[in-house]
Amino acid sequence: MVARVERFEEPFVIEKIVFGLLSPQEIRKLAKVTIIRPDVYEADGSPVVGGLRDPHLGAIEPGERCPVCGNTREECPGHFGKIELARPVLLPHLGDYIYMMLQSTCRRCGRLLLPQDRIEYLRRIYVRLKEKWPRLAEVMANSIAKEASDVTECPHCGERQFKVRYIRPIIFYEKRPEGEVRLTPIDIRDRLERIPDDDVMLLGVDPKRARPEWMVLTVLPVPPLAVRPSITLETGLRAEDDLTHALAEIVRENEKLKNFIQTNAPETMIEDAWLTLQHVIAAYIDNELPNIYQLTHRRRRPLKTLAQRLKGKEGRLRGNLSGKRVNFSARTVISPDPLISINEVGVPVEIAKILTVQMVVTPYNIEEARRYVLNGPFKWPGATFVYKARQGRKIDLRYQKNYKQLAEELEPGDIVERHLINGDIVLFNRQPTLHRMSIMGHIVRVMPGKTFRINLLVCPPYNADFDGDEMNLHVPRLEEARAEARELLLVEKHILTPRYGGPIIGGRQDYISGAYLLTIKTTLLTLEEVSRIIARSEAPVDLMEPAILRPKPLYTGKQIVSLFLPRDLNFRGKAKINAGDLKCENENCMNDSFIVVEKGKLLMGVLDKNAIGAEQPNNLLHVIALEYGESKAREFLDTIFRSFIRVLEVKGLSMAYSDIEIPKEAKDEIDRLTEEARREVEELIDQYRRGTLELIPGRTAEESLELKIIERLQKLRTDAGNVAIKYLNPFNDVFIMARTGARGSDVNITQMAAMLGQQTIRGRRIWRGFRTRTLSHFKPGELSPEARGFIKGNFRDGLRPSELFFHAVAGREGLVDTAVKTSQSGYMQRRLINALQDLVVSYDGTVRDSWGNIIQFKYGEDGVDPMRTYHGKPVEVSRVIDRIRSLRGSRGGWRQEG
Amino acid sequence: MSSGVPDRRILEHELVPEHRVLSFEEAIALLRKLGVKPWQLPQISLNDPVVRLLNAKPGDIIEIKRRSPTGGVHIAYRLVVAYERRA
Ligand SMILES: [Mg+2]
Ligand SMILES: [Zn+2]
Ligand SMILES: [Zn+2]
Q1: CATH number for the domain that contains residue A595
Q2: Is the ipTM beyond the 0.85 threshold?
Q3: In which domain, by residue range, is A616 found?
Q4: How far apart, in whole angstroms, are the C-alpha atoms of residue A178 and residue A155?
């Protein structure tokens, strides 16, 4: 594509923007036509003269010439019209200002209701304040208005003042001694007119830009047609814009009122028509005001009037100015595909045929380009457009029959707009886009189906799952953008996160269970099984000698893993299962919970969450990514991880009701523990009632009691959980998942098998509900565990009704918390990003904003990129030792060469 | 602002890092090294207690040696100003 270089005018700098009100004179000067008829078109289809489509509003039809400016529709800017209102009408959105002015000025002479010397004193201060601290002047004006509104007698003319009652948005009453009297817009306008300019200023309003009486309309501007274009439906019918409908309603009511006045109709009829006109104009400005009749279509759909165009998420500001839409993008549901690379994304053929990339035809790719053109726009991989360079012509292949001829005529320099094909790079995004890994570059892999496919290992950075999540895809169109995407955005460049210095891409759930089952000591595999597992990785590896030769050759899972580790890798670390009975401090331990990798051989320890899990700093994966490069880490993730899944397919992993069943002895033991705790709690309550309870420093007796009870009951649940776990088979699948960190925790198992324990709200036992008790099941004032949300039951055996209720109560607190937290942290995030988005680390290590102002003299005060650290530490001494040892023999002495 | 002289002992407080006014030559060298105009530096108020104790004037540059939890000693500079930059 040829970039067109344009000469730009020296831009003007906007110094300030001032908002004010239009005066009636300005509105009349602006208007080129007075609108007196509510219809748009005559029966013959010509626009109504004096109607809402009067030609003087501007030319909009092709070929039409504007009677005002003489231009055609391309040049005519459009012109305002006006409606001369039969009687004045309040501007509804300014009601609060009208109210303030009515209250703080005299009802007879219009002066600010403060003594003259006070006014002069305030003015001197106000003028100076306005100059230096405009925002403070605003505050001052408010307090002046407040001060004046409390005065009951005018200091200037002595007139007695009455309070004004305001019913939003347009109704005002004056509270006279004889009763409330409604103030009509005429009354209000008269009073506002009487306020002198100098007093207006003290109320925070600039009288040159907004005289108070301009808040009461006598003439209404009618916007040009470009603001409210009519659209022609397929049926040939013309549909007018909502604003035109609203304006028609105003003209109708205005003409009716005018007619009543001219024909001397009864005063009540005139009043009614006037009130209707006020309602209609209020709705024209904002159709969602309270106490106003909404303007609607025939089908009761409310009209979108002026305020509705600007307001809200879909409004002009949030919908059009802050949020923009893009082309060359696609969105659909995501689903998993463990067999594609983490760098790839599966794109449905249907989408690949719509998203396109421009390809410049050269002698080297002309044959390829011809193949695309030959396929046409409907067959993948094809092309949708051809730009002929020499003729400067754009050919839409959808309307072409002879692809063959076009393909033959193709010549270097032409541009072919071709379908997305395998190997293209695209940007892939999931909202909310909270960190930079929320948009990554993926390599396209076109496949059948209607969903985007992603490798499961990239779920953590996107925070994606497959319960209906949708994601967006964007095609970078320029060579520069594509190169940038490949070099900077590609998934493998984001295995490590700058957020905390660790791997954010990695195994979860089944990957972890699979790795564990593969690497435990009891896993011994025949050659055939090994082949099946390794085959899934699709990596070419040389199998070593089996660990066991006789009676038949058997491989260990650790041998298989070792095939994929870097040759010189040394690593030591604790496994996730390294806890409780399986504790291991170092390699001299038989529990297999301490990982030892020596020269690329997994000698000891099982692989679980602490070795291959996502978001686990300093694990095996992290070390590989950091020390061997992201490309090596990607290879590791793309190969052995698939084998982990394969292990599960062979061995099977599921969950049964029986997995959380505990024997009767265990239940009895838990019952005994519960009785013991109950007695202790009763004792505490007794002490509290007698007043002998030992108080916790800084706490009242009630608080001390509650804290002690919670502590005791918490201990009970832990104890009960330990009993349950003691009786569970350590190789039952649920327990495996919890121990390895694949899914679930000890607490989950406890709650399923033993007891739910104490439910809390804001860290306290449940106390709310009825007057002195939580539920009517309990005695008034009862403090026993079960009356305050302690649940002895478990999920397996089921809950009692009151227990279920307490559980729901605590569960709801969790839901509310997450809802509140996400909105609050989202807002904080937005503000931080707005403040920090243009900061840059420059070559001298300083952090600067876009004007070159220095923000930090050294990035992070240490100049360290957290992405390339061991969980924040630039150097990890134990790693240095391990790496040096890899240069030497594993146990002392330099490696002997030869 | 407040008229009293700040207590000299604040300079000894462990949370108050070491402040020093750069000489004219040092200041010029610093600005040249960073390639910035004085107003592109972060600022410190003339009313800052330590600035008042150091008797610094608007336009002076103050060197602050801070102990950073990650980076050992970090040196920052602040331009003394009578009125702070508006946000
Ligand atoms: Mg989801
Ligand atoms: Zn015109
Ligand atoms: Zn008066």
Answers
A1: 1.10.274.100
A2: yes
A3: 503-651
A4: 23
